[in-house]
Automatic annotation (TrEMBL):
It holds the Pfam family GST_N. Residues 71-204 form the GST C-terminal domain. Residues 3-85 form the GST N-terminal domain. The lineage of its organism: Eukaryota, Fungi, Dikarya, Ascomycota, Pezizomycotina. InterPro entries: Glutathione-S-Trfase_C-like (IPR010987), Glutathione-S-Trfase_C_sf (IPR036282), Glutathione_S-Trfase (IPR040079), Glutathione_S-Trfase_N (IPR004045), GST_C (IPR004046), Thioredoxin-like_sf (IPR036249). This is Glutathione S-transferase. It comes from Rhizodiscina lignyota. Transmembrane segments: none annotated. CDD domains: GST_N_GTT1_like. Belongs to the GST superfamily.
Amino acid sequence: MSKPSITLFFLQASRSIRTAWLLEALSLPYDVKFYNRLNGKAPPEFKQTCGNPLGKSPTMKDGDLTLWESGAIAEYILQMWTHAAEGTFLLHSLAIAYAVGNTPSSVSDEAKGEMVKGMSVAVQNDLDWLEKELGDEGTGWLAGKDLTAADVMVHFSAQFIFARDLGTKGVDKGSRWKNITGWLQRCEGSESYKRAVQKTGYTL
Ligand SMILES: N[C@@H](CCC(=O)N[C@@H](CS)C(=O)NCC(=O)O)C(=O)O
């Protein structure tokens, strides 16, 4: 087994528990360098080795990158899916909605169809990636064993694409993207999602 690239510099009785908890929740492998406090402070060996000029905990290393501020560390850990929700899935699918909605009436249906077909390639590619990430050997959630912010962010994007058929026209979604279909149902069956829908009256 290869060595985890993440090392958490963990100071006892500190915000470091935030980072450890998030890493555990997401099932991400990491090493811990544990330090007890000395006179209530981080001990000198913590400050000398963690790589954080402020000498505060948590500090996390991912390969050559050193990060501190527990909020920034949490964002770093979650950023891939949270940004893909907008920067990948909705970017490509909304482009279709905007293009179709703004095509002049002088453009023939055939030309419009060709344009949508061309733009659908990116959406389908994105969905194939999501399908693979949710693969049969996964936990049923995007990052870790339970629902996380990654699911919350990507769920709307996938739900919207399927509901509006943006880039997915003519595809048997339940068969090509069966993992996504099951995951959407799982997300929508979660108690927190149901409560959010009930409280807000959300519908698509
Ligand atoms: N805003 C920072 C605060 C970091 C911080 O102040 N950490 C405290 C522990 S909760 C610390 O390292 N104290 C030890 C010291 O200052 O020597 C964060 O959220 O990570």
